[in-house]
Amino acid sequence: MEKVTAMDIFGQAILDRSCGIQEPLYFIVKGNKEEKNLTRYLRKISELNILEKKLIDLAYGDILDVGCGTGNYIQKLKEQGNVIGIDISKEVIKVAHKLGNKECIQANIFNYNSKTKFDTITFLENNFGMATTKEQINKLITKLGELLKPNGQTLLIQRDIKKPEFVVNTITVEYKGKKADFEWAHFSKKYLKKRFEKAGLIFNEVSREILDDQQDWYLAKLTMI
To answer: Phi and psi (nearest 5°) for 213?
Structure first.
């Protein structure tokens, strides 16, 4: 029997919510159990925050949205160019297709290959945190170089932390009696900037906001030197 992963459980919860099922999904971190706001992943374009809207305005050309989820951003990104969205969760992709976002496919960015090269690669929702080791950070940066056109850009929205500069949390996902763990990383801007610039990328902060969760978030643009 195929092992159920945390992303499978998370995706099933969003799929259920899209069908009107109001079962709670919990994230447990360091013993703290909180209900996850699933409606966030079913927002309309008008409900996006200021950083998300600014990122979309900066996107152009052939666009790859990494960690596309249900495709919240896809319809708006399509106004900026040709879009492909990828997400690791097959259940979340089912929701994306149900919502009409056929440009979304199940794929893992770490081994994603494409004949198309992209003008813009986007990471919303703190999604660069999928790289949870220094090796994965390097691999992800290398993958960006493989997928981008020579003058392409990467746009990312990250939650900024101060200390420690690089921390990895183990998160337990709980839904309908099922549990599974996954890891997610958080970085200080200083740490990420140093890693990107070491790889030969120019790191520019475009905008910064305190968002609804009262956390410090920023939008950054990465380009080749």
So the answer is: -80, 5
For the record, the structure tokens of 187 come out as: 């970085």
Token pair of 151 as six digits: 């003058």
Q: Using CA atoms, how far apart are residues 108 and 93, in angstroms rounded to an integer?
A: 12
Whole-model pTM?
A: 0.95
d(CA 86, CA 100): 15
Q: How confident is the prediction along the chain (225 residues), in pLDDT tens digits per residue?
A: 557 899 989 999 999 999 999 999 999 999 999 999 999 999 999 999 999 999 999 999 999 999 999 999 999 999 999 999 999 999 999 999 999 999 999 999 999 999 999 999 999 999 999 999 999 999 999 999 999 999 999 999 999 998 899 999 999 999 999 999 999 999 999 999 999 999 999 999 999 999 987 899 999 999 987
Taking the mean position of all CA atoms in its chain, how far away is CA 44?
Answer: 17
CA distance 76 to 64: 13
Torsion angle (degrees, nearest 10) of CA 54, 59, 64, 67: 0
Give all domains of the chain, ordered by start, each with its CATH number: 6-224 (3.40.50.150)
Selection from 185, 213, 174 nearest residue 27 by Cα? 174
Q: How far apart are CA 27 and CA 35, in angstroms?
A: 6
Report CA-CA distances (Å) from 110 to 107, 130, 142, 202: 9, 10, 10, 22
Cα–Cα–Cα angle for 121, 124, 125, rounded to 5 degrees: 155
